[in-house]
């Protein structure tokens, strides 16, 4: 299998499992409003970068980061059992600021469209 396709497949599997685990298995209060937006791997599959956002009013990214660090060992162990690879990848959790930027841009464009429609 092509390395690029394999990395995409493994990234998708990790994304799906982490998303499910956050909803159903993780009881960490600091992660109550966190959700995964993307998972990317290094070419050797030794490091998984997990991008996340924090929803809700007054999102606390620092608390979510602490929550992910606290659960890192559990998540790594569970994922290595569910998605067997030669090596259990290390997990790096990164706040996804580009996601927030995209949401703001979409709102701006939506507001511009509404203004344009009213002007016509």
Question: Which radius of gyration do the C-alpha atoms yield?
Answer: 17 Å
**Unreliable stretches:** none
Helix content: 55-70%
Write down the overall geometry: globular
In which order are the strands of the major sheet placed?
1-2-3
Mean pLDDT: 88
Q: For the terminal residues, how far apart are their CA atoms?
A: 54 Å
Number of strand elements = 3
Largest sheet: 3 strands, mixed
Please tally the helical runs, counting DSSP H or I stretches of 4 or more residues: 3
Strand content: 15-25%
Estimated structural class: alpha+beta
Elements, N to C (H/E): HEEHEH
Description:
This protein is α+β, with helices and mostly antiparallel strands. The chain is built from 3 helices and 3 strands. Strands 1-2-3 form a 3-stranded mixed β-sheet, with helices on both faces. The longest helix has 23 residues. The mean pLDDT is 88.
